Amino acid sequence: MAVPKRRKSHSRVRTQRAHKAMTAVQHQYCTSCGAPTLPHRACPACGHYQKRFYVKSEES
Ligand SMILES: [Zn+2]
Predict the structure, then answer these.
(1) Cα(19)–Cα(6) distance, rounded to whole angstroms?
(2) Rounded to an integer, what distance in angstroms lies between the CA atom of residue 48 and that of residue 1?
(3) Residue 41 contacts residue 49 (beta carbons within 8 Å)
(4) What residues form DSSP beta bridges with 49?
(5) Spacing, Cα 26 to ligand 1 middle (Å)
(6) Interatomic CA distance for residues 29 and 18, integer angstroms
(7) What residues pair up with 24 in beta bridges, in sequence order?
(8) What was the pLDDT predicted at 58?
(9) Which end of the chain has a smaller Cβ tally under 10 Å, C or N?
(10) Domain ranges of the chain
(11) 3 C-alpha to center of ligand 1: Å?
(12) What pLDDT, on a 0 to 100 scale, did the predictor assign at position 22?
């Protein structure tokens, strides 16, 4: 098995990890009910997506 020749310094490790920050999840608001939804997904609250209802809600 290949083994690294030299250990990475704390500085190198921290420099690598400087680019690994997490970002907040993008979200939009449903045009039908106003609930927050993920982009390119049907609304979890009402099933609305692209002017259509794809998921039957329990009310209707
Ligand atoms: Zn909705």
Answers:
(1) 22
(2) 53
(3) yes
(4) 52
(5) 16
(6) 32
(7) none
(8) 62
(9) N
(10) 23-60
(11) 53
(12) 93
Q: pLDDT tens for residues 11-23?
A: 999 999 999 999 9
3-class secondary-structure state, position 50: coil
Ordered DSSP codes for 6-28? SPPPHHHHHHHHTT----PPP-E
User: Who has greater pLDDT, 57 or 43?
Assistant: 43
Q: Which residues pair with 36 in a beta bridge?
A: 29
Distance in Å, CA 25 to ligand 1 centroid = 18
The encoded tokens of residue 12 equal 């190198």
Contact predicate 33/43, CB 8 Å: yes
Strands 52-53 and 48-49: antiparallel
pTM of the complete model beyond 0.70: no
